[in-house]
Amino acid sequence: MKAVELTAPSLTAFRTTQLPDPEPARGEVVVRLRAASLNYLDVAIATGGFPVAGFPMVPVADGAGEVAALGEGVAGVAVGDRVIPHFMPGWLAGAITPGHVAALRGVTLPGSLAEYVAVPAASLVALPPHLDFVHGAALPIAATTAWNAVRSASVRPGSVVVLLGTGGVSIFALQFAKASGAKVILASSSDDKLERARQLGADHLINYRATPAWDEEVLRLTNGRGADLVVETVGAATLARSLQAAAFGGTVFTVGFVTGSVASIDMLPVIVKALRIVGNNTGSVADLAQATQAIAAHRIVPAIDRVFGIDETQAAYAELSAGGRHFGKLAIVH
Length: 334
Ligand SMILES: NC(=O)c1ccc[n+]([C@@H]2O[C@H](COP(=O)([O-])OP(=O)(O)OC[C@H]3O[C@@H](n4cnc5c(N)ncnc54)[C@H](OP(=O)(O)O)[C@@H]3O)[C@@H](O)[C@H]2O)c1
What we know:
The protein is globular, with a radius of gyration of 20 Å. Helix content is 28%, strand content 26%. It folds into two domains: 2-138 and 302-333, Medium-chain alcohol dehydrogenases, catalytic domain (Quinone Oxidoreductase, Chain A, domain 1, Alpha-Beta Complex), CATH 3.90.180.10; 143-279, NAD(P)-binding Rossmann-like Domain (Rossmann fold, 3-Layer(aba) Sandwich), CATH 3.40.50.720. The chain has 334 residues and is of the alpha/beta class. Helix 4 (139-152) crosses helix 5 (168-179). NADP nicotinamide-adenine-dinucleotide phosphate binds at residues 39-41, 141-142, 145, 164-170, 187-190, 193, 208, 233-234, 237-238, 255-259, 280-282, 320, 323-324.
């Protein structure tokens, strides 16, 4: 089969190659991958910022395709089914354990830049009928994480949700928060992207370059109350302001480290406001299934900024690693 491999932790170390077709083991299916989508994680791997099992490796965690072959003992899945293989295939449901983070597609297991991949049948989620393969490939990491964020804070009509930037997680969180009836305040470096967020339902827009004290703006917009949920996708540069922007009893859902993972914070807002700082590591297959059901029920369409051909993989990585250029997701098609 045709595959693109990453041969070293470098944004220019991609090569197109031929690999043996995978065979499904007992309980596995082979998926003919049709599309992949990039996450910040993929760039972190290609810049040496996240450990992998070794090089060369087939990169890209997220993908979607159709079932091509069934292993022994597989039931409830048919050849031709349109499916999304989850990024963490061993984590079916429940709380996370060390074993779950040891098996990650595109990290320690083969990723989505190959024609075929063998995965556990139990790690598949059905692609909603209103979505194509590119949309489906956008879901595993970003939609699962955004879903868990909104669910963690029990977002409901009247809740205030603050989102930082316009990357994959933030835009799914915008879509889930609006579907839940929340008021959304979104901060971005770009007025153009703020306008695109407004079209997706964002209620208040802050350009964090023009208004670096965006936490004060959140408090002003909420009459001093603050946000019930801040989805912390940025990390070191913003965590302190996220704590300031949160309401009493609010949730700061910490997932991102695009500006680094070592932050210095004042504990007082956490203590005085009894904040919940909630860590998250993507989510289980069950979480992806729930996110996908919400996407189907609300007919949410993932925001795909650009689609690259598989032979343009290096350009796709360059676009994501440039930071601040894309809105939502970048995809790669086979
Ligand atoms: N722990 C988990 O469960 C989990 C799951 C998924 C992702 N993540 C992490 O979450 C982060 C975001 O992931 P992603 O895939 O959504 O990334 P992404 O698509 O690359 O988006 C990153 C966005 O961050 C925004 N940004 C950068 N600096 C900022 C700042 N100072 N203030 C506000 N916004 C800023 C930019 O938005 P603008 O261009 O609009 O300014 C940029 O588009 C990454 O670190 C990723 O590894 C963690």
